[in-house]
Structure formats: C-alpha cells, structure tokens
Amino acid sequence: MTASEPIGILGGTFDPVHFGHLRLAEEAADGLGLSRVLLIPAALPNLRARPGTEAQHRLTMVRLAVQGNPRLAVDDRELKREGMSYTVDTLVELRSELGATSPFFLILGADAFLRLPAWSRWLELFELTHIAVATRPGYDLDGALGTSGELKGQWEARRVPEPVACAGLPSGRIVRLPIPLLQISATDLRARMSRAKSVRYLLPPAVVDYIAAQRLYVTE
Ligand code: ATP
Ligand code: MG
Fold first, then answer.
1. How far apart are the C-alpha atoms of 109 and 61, rounded to whole Å?
2. In contact, 25 and 72? CB cutoff 8 Å
3. 81: Cβ contacts below 8 Å, ≥ 6 apart
4. Collapsing DSSP states into helix, strand and coil, what is residue 163?
5. Ligand 1: distance of its center to the CA of 185 in Å?
6. Closest protein CA for atom 21 of ligand 1
7. Which residues are bridge partners to 7 per DSSP?
8. Which residue, 61, 92, 152, 182, shows the most beta carbons closer than 10 Å to its own?
C-alpha cells in the first residue's frame, strides 16, 4: 500500500462476519475508489451482555471470508491492543503509519453512524478520516438524524453529495454510500444458529464450515 492512496476502514465485532459486511466493503471499494479496505475486528467490550465469541475465532472467520479478494485485508491491531477498542486510537495509529495525506474513509452502516456521538472522542474522528455512511435495512438515516442535534450539526457541516468532493482531502467529510440492502445481521445469525437453523448463503461457505467444525454458536 503506497501512502496517499485512499483506504477504507471497516471495523466491527464480526461475530460472525457475513455477506452484509463483505458486500459493504466491496461497495465501498467501488463507490469510493479505494484500492484497499481494512477489516478490523474489535476486541469485545467487557460490558457486552453475552459472552461473545473468542477473538481468535472472529479473526479467523474474517480471514477466511476475505480470502481471494485482493482489495480486502484483515488488520488485527485492535485484538493485540490491551483493553477496549477505540476507533480513534486505531485511526491515530494508521495515520502515523500511512502518513497525513492519504484519504481515509471510515465505513459505517447507518446504525453505527447514528450511535457515533457515544464513541470515544468522536469529534476527533473528523480530523483523521472521512466517514462513508451506508444504507442498512431498518435504519432511517434522515428520520433519525432529526432527533440527534449534535450528529445533525456535524452532518450538515461536513456532508458532501458525492465521493469526488473528498478528492485530495485526507479527512473531514461525510458522504452517503447507497448500497443494495441486505437484511443480514450477526445478531440474527446467532439466533438462527442457537436454534440449530441453517445460515448457509448468508455468509461465505468457508465461514459456515469453520463454524460447524469449531462448534461455535452452539447452545446446549
Ligand atoms: P451485531 O448484530 O452483533 O451488532 P452486525 O451484523 O451489526 O452484528 P457489526 O460487526 O456490528 O455487525 O457491524 C460492523 C459494521 O458493519 C457496522 O458499521 C454495521 O453498520 C455494518 N453492517 C453490518 N451488517 C450490515 C448490513 N447488512 N448492511 C449494511 N451495513 C452493515
Ligand atoms: Mg452491529
């Protein structure tokens, strides 16, 4: 990866990774002209209600999922770091590695974007990256923005109509990323698996096979 090339950053718990994530990464690469999208699994917050799948399994599943796609890469830095994963810390690290001039695009589904004001040092994110907000079934971005004053303020100040308006700028803009709606969530996949229902065709076959071989998400 050379400096100054635009890169995408897609964080998540990936518990498990599914076609909603992968299609989002692929759409971002095409729509934003990214040569590379980094998928960055987060360490699970200790406060999360359910036990959660071990980090190593989540990481392995993401690695299996991106195999054979040269535009998608897995970055395990948040799992190596102690304690909670804060995206802002990850972006500071990536900036120091890749330089100040490469455009960064933090890729967020509409649900994640609408929770942004709860993130650690969220306003600093705009000094480090652009944000691309993807459509996601069940989340009405325009409707919900009306009820969040601080997020709406940033939206109105930073939103640009097309990705091309970010050209040459490393950070600071918000752009919509309209993608085909895929009604897939890891929560729903976990619920299906806990009832011993099939999840085939909702995530890559290699991940389906890994889950079966490791007996993940089985509740007995
Ligand atoms: P969970 O149900 O456990 O929260 P999830 O399916 O939402 O899992 P995450 O790991 O929380 O997956 O999501 C990581 C990122 O991918 C978030 O920005 C989220 O909005 C986005 N994302 C996940 N699934 C989709 C989807 N089907 N369409 C668009 N964006 C998605
Ligand atoms: Mg989620």
1. 20
2. yes
3. 43, 89
4. helix
5. 6
6. 109
7. 36, 104
8. 61
